Amino acid sequence: MNWLRLENPSDFQQLLDASFSDNLSAVAIFKHSTRCVISTMAKVRLAASWNFKDELPIYYLDLIQHRALSNQVSEELGVEHQSPQLLLIKGGKCFYHTSHNGISVREINSFLKQKD
Predict the structure, then answer these.
(1) pLDDT tens, residue by residue, 37-78
(2) Running DSSP on this structure, what letter comes out for residue 51?
(3) Could you tell me the pTM of the whole model?
(4) What residues pair up with 19 in beta bridges, in sequence order?
(5) Widest pairwise Cα distance in the chain
(6) What's the CATH code, domain 3-115?
(7) Where are the domains of the chain?
(8) Is the dihedral of CA 72, 41, 102, 18 positive or negative?
(9) Angle at 15 between CA 89 and CA 101, to 5 degrees
(10) pLDDT bucket at 116, cuts 50 / 70 / 90
(11) CA spacing 20 to 30 A to 93: which of 30, 31, 43, 55?
């Protein structure tokens, strides 16, 4: 699994720009609290079963270090903040989000198949 860092507004803009690519199913963001056991379990579970190659890049956002950026992501995408949280973005818009125990590769695969 290749975690891409989401650490500043320019990273977020690059992510949004990439979400317009026809070569990608979407772009994912995993919002993670390093102080939360549930968030850590979701991250480990996600990493262990991640089966996407380059078609679904995933960005890692540390909520503790980058809270202002997390707020910006929530505001610009119109998605209420949760932790942990997974968002899928295509065409600059969040079309799927889930949190806590709802975060799973199986659910992502299922949702992406429905979208096609």
Answers:
(1) 999 999 999 999 999 988 999 999 999 999 999 999 999 999
(2) -
(3) 0.94
(4) none
(5) 36
(6) 3.40.30.10
(7) 3-115
(8) positive
(9) 45
(10) low
(11) 43
